[in-house]
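We now fix the convention by which a protein and its fold are recorded. The integers have meaning only within a learned vocabulary of local backbone shapes. A complete example follows; check for yourself that the lines match position by position.
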Amino acid sequence: MESVVVEWVSLITRWTHITAGIAWIGSSFYFMHLDAALRGIPEIPAGKGGEAWEVHGGGFYQVRKYLVAPDRLPDHLIWHKWQAYSTWLSGIFLLGWIYYLGAELYLIDPSVRVLTPLTAAGIGFGSLLVGWLVYDGLVRSKLAKHEMALAAVGFVFIVFMAWFYQQMFSGRGALIHTGALIGTMMVGNVFLNIMPNQRKVIADLVAGRLPNPAYGKQAKTRSTHNNYLTLPVLFLMLSSHFALVFTSPYAFVIVGLVLVAGALVRVFYNIRHAGKSDPWWTWGVAGLCIAAAIAISALSAPAAREALSLDALPDPIEVAGLPPAPEEIVGIVQGRCAMCHAATPAWPGLTVAPKDVRFDTAEEIERWKPVIGLYAGRTNAMPPNNVSEITPEERHALAQWALLP
């Protein structure tokens, strides 16, 4: 029953997280597009805002933007905030549910660093808080007056954190925390800067004071950062499902390449939507970055490293404190699953074990007991299409073993 609850809570939370993320990203892209499409009109002084006409769903929309505030506050004002908040809250819950409660499986890699689940969770969550403070400090510093310098320092900081996470956690844990760090920076911008600044503007309007234009400028800067970070954070959230990326010892370099590629794609659309030009070169450079990332991931895979004499094949993972799985179970798993789930997969086309789940030793098999019991015992999810012809009796044995303490 426990595995059923874990699986369904994970599914429902992912569903919520993805839905909220679609809403947040969609509104972010829309407003960046809208800002770029604004044109000056006589009713709004030059440099103080603009207007855009849009057509959608059979109707026409007339949208105006005031860089500071309108002369009169409307009776009905729509706030765009819960898309961001619900994305982050569901994401943090999912991080805790999968990576902190299941730290021994997904977060801690004994071959990288031996940690207790509590220590690993503390490093993970604590680094998100520290990361936000560092980023916020940079944006509030004098460096913020120089956009390119701030972008360069921010880029180095994120790549450094990706490297740091690789020294602490499993490959999956490292990339998911890098994504969570960027997501925390983005939602922090909304919750701690953009929304408070908007409230200050409204308070000034209600009091009859002229709002400070610096509030809007600060919020716009943070919103622009979020826009350029959106595509990289999506890549990082997906990358934890692809072993060729997260098992690479140079995953932090891949993170850097994806940051550049994602930002350049947004540069293209931001300039194009403003009607200035079509900078197609951005796609070329972005493509080169992704091609470099693919090459790094392929050449750093275990099989490729052996072929190039770059490194010895990885040793089986040592799992301290766990007893070996029973001989009968080891025979089933290694006979039916280890052709893919091994340090050197024998299945054609595989260079890395799917999701880096390996069954080379009885201890490794014991480590993955809950997953094996669910995916190969209680359900027929693995092996895919039952390519290794595991029998119902063997599935039953795996399911019963997984129920043992």
Q: What stands out?
A: Strands lie at 49-56, 59-66. The CA atoms of residues 366 and 393 lie 19 Å apart. The chain has a mean pLDDT of 87.
